Amino acid sequence: MPQVGLGVYLVEPQVAKSTVLHALKTGYRSIDTAQFYNNEKEVGEAIKESGIPREEIFVTTKVWNSHHGYEETLEAFEESLHKLQLDYIDLYLIHWPMPMKNKYVDTYKALETLYKAGKVKAIGLSNFHIDHIEHILSHCTIKPVVNQVECHPYFQQNELKTFCEQHDIYLEAWSPLSRGAVLQDETIVKLAEKYSKSPAQIILRWHIQRNTIIIPKSITPNRIEENFQLFDFSLDEEDMQRIASIDKNERRGREPNTMDMI
């Protein structure tokens, strides 16, 4: 799985295809979508029209809260596969644990079935807390490989990241730029000046050096390109620590345990 991918959350269907096509042209080879995003069809069209061999593109999608449960998840997967016009999915995730429904173990068992059938290459989780993951590990036979969660310099998720690493689960950051909230931070701005890079590039490079997978989202062509230009510099350890010091434990997205039952 590429460490840098394109996220398409809130990317409207009418611009999703051109956005993904531009990302693929730029060099991205990982695209993250979901049943809930309502743009799987356009993502699939972009992949098909790109001319890039299917095996070179890593596609992630997710089962939504409305389809928790074993049979419901299998049904949701087939719908996503059809919309994406693909023969298999590279990574399939449970979008939210929804503990109040108490169905995420059954949902995960459906993911295991899909994995064993060769319909998905890897399976994982999204927005799962440590106790949710422990519950999965105690009831299932195939370990999740990824936990995709909100993670950025203001919400660094250190305890969760350490737990995941101990269990060979990669942390993947959605909203790696905190929806832009961190871009004006004084520490980040100073480092951008020091390295002659944009604040976004500093933050994304910090994620990379923490061994975090990232899926920054943009529909702006030059931003899509900028977010991919991360491998011609590195932050020294002192600057990594500077960014570590600005953690506020500030979640900007939803709290998984109290999320509305959608």
Task: Give short descriptive properties of this protein.
262 residues; alpha/beta; eight-stranded parallel beta sheet; 41% helix; globular
Structure characterization notes:
The chain is α/β, with parallel strands linked by helices and 262 residues long. It has helices at residues 13-26, 40-50, 70-84, 104-116, 130-139, 158-166, 186-195, 199-209, 221-226, 237-244; strands spanning 6-7, 30-32, 58-63, 89-94, 120-126, 146-150, 170-174, 213-214. It has an eight-stranded parallel β-sheet with strand order 1-2-3-4-5-6-7-8. Helix 4 links the parallel strand 4 and strand 5 (120-126). The longest helix has 15 residues, at 70-84. It starts with 5 loop residues before the first strand and ends in an 18-residue tail after the last helix. The mean pLDDT is 97.
Radius of gyration: 18 Å
Going by helix content, strand content and strand pairing, the class is alpha/beta
- Low-pLDDT stretches: none
Mean pLDDT, nearest integer? 97
